[in-house]
Amino acid sequence: MVWPLQRTSAMRAARIVLATSALALAIAAPQAEAGRRAAPAPEHKGSTYLSPISKNRRIVGFTRSSSRPKSFLRRTRDALVTTFGKKGTSAALPETTLWIPGHTLGWRSLRPAMKHFLGNPANGEVAAVYVAKEGRFRANKPSGRVLSDAEVRATKLVTVQFSNPRAGQAVKSVEIASAVRALRQARGGEGRMPLRVVTHSAGDTHFRAALMDHIDPQRDGIKITGVVAVGPVFAGTWTGNVGNSKLGGLLGMRAAASELAEGSPFLARLESSREAIDAKIEGQRIDIAYEGAPTLRLRGRQHVAPGDGFVQSRNTHRPGTRTLILRGIDPTVGNHLGQIMYPGTVKAVEEALTAP
Questions:
Q1: Domain residues for 96?
Q2: What is the CATH number of the domain that holds 247?
Q3: What global pTM score does this model have?
Q4: H or E stretch including 345?
Q5: pLDDT computed for residue 61 by the predictor
Q6: What average pLDDT is seen over the chain?
Q7: What pLDDT is stored for residue 247 in this prediction?
Q8: Distance between CA atoms of 266 and 212, rounded to whole angstroms?
Q9: How many whole angstroms separate alpha carbon 73 and alpha carbon 40?
Q10: Is residue 259 situated within a structural domain?
Q11: Pseudo-torsion of CA 319, 320, 321, 322, nearest 10°?
């Protein structure tokens, strides 16, 4: 028989035991959950503002700063030199580099960079243009002569001419993967082929879509040793929202525009797959953003901020990536469209590709 006093003491002891157990579980559960979680996402590696250094009117390098130049005259000078300065002597690229053009722009937008790097014999005699409609490489342009495998092996400059420059990622990501496999086949040999990638604008999203759905570096025999993205639009743009309309339909690019709109399901899917995509890139990732054009953003608190007319520079902060910021003189959306052809861009890309 348990007396009332004994029953009360027993109940109190039971409550203490239960409370202690609950507290222990509450403490242990987050610890166990933390142990089961994946490693935290890498942080953005910071933004660096580049001011071009010129010698005999040729851009030979950059001074670097963690803050935007305060002087209006300095900013204007930087923009003029970046946009109109002359290119210096081209460096030898360490590895084959695949250049992916932006939406609607095609191979022509990459000609200034191709011409610059072909100035160094170590980079080859011609650029290999993969013509997606034909599934083969041609010299310097889509109508150039067909290249042999030996000629493709001899060049470090490769680009893609899409079958439809206005198409969306469903077409372009497949054609990027086809270009990579055709390049690997032409190169021959054993082991994985080192490959660096330079993208412009939506070319970045199309390349990442190819990595997400179509390219397996191990299976395809490649090793992506670095990626440089000029003007990436991974956060969406107001122009994508505008293009996702009847106007975009009339221009034959509504589907592609809808993918690049702010808050698009396609961009959300890319972001949800970011860790898996980044795991396929074994070298450093660098984003090159531009300022000089007041840039609209429909979502968020700051609707107008420094950018290139399409992308606000403050939105180019991806985990694990360093952002370099240049300034163009064009205060319109032309800043974004033309930036891949600017001499300052070519020099910044060159330094990123040849850095140890």
A1: 47-354
A2: 3.40.50.1820
A3: 0.86
A4: helix 343-354
A5: 96
A6: 88
A7: 72
A8: 12
A9: 42
A10: yes
A11: 110
